[in-house]
Amino acid sequence: MNDDAIVDRLRAEAGRLTAVELADLLATLTGSAISQGSIVAYFKRAFPVVPLRVLLNAGAWVRVSGGDLTDEGFNELLRPWIGR
Questions:
Q1: Which residue, of 5, 20, 39, 64, has the greatest Cβ tally within 10 A?
Q2: What is the structure's pLDDT at 31?
Q3: How far apart are CA 56 and CA 44, in angstroms?
């Protein structure tokens, strides 16, 4: 699957899936582990209204950096722009 198709799929699932679920979908579609770089790159293309600073802050998510941002915190951080 190419990058444009991945971006289209993420957009199609926004509103139905949480941010965590969208990140899990991203990992499945790319066939690689979730990273801060992939979240910033793909989420910014799929959801350009999300401020870059918010996506950078999402890098504190425990699943990508061992930071202190929980799954619920990741969802809350991105909920105003994506996810349910």
A1: 39
A2: 95
A3: 10
Beta-strand ranges (E) seen in 3-79 are none
- Per-residue confidence (pLDDT) for residue 1, from 0 to 100: 84
And the tokens for 37? 């770089």
| Gap between the Cα atoms of 62 and 49, Å rounded | 24
What is the domain extent for residue 71? 3-78
**Number of C-beta neighbours around residue 33 at 10 A:** 9
pTM of the predicted model as reported, rounded to 2 decimal places: 0.93
Whether the Cβ atoms of residue 58 and residue 78 lie closer than 8 Å to each other: yes
83 within domain boundaries = no
Contact 22, 77 (CB under 8 A): no
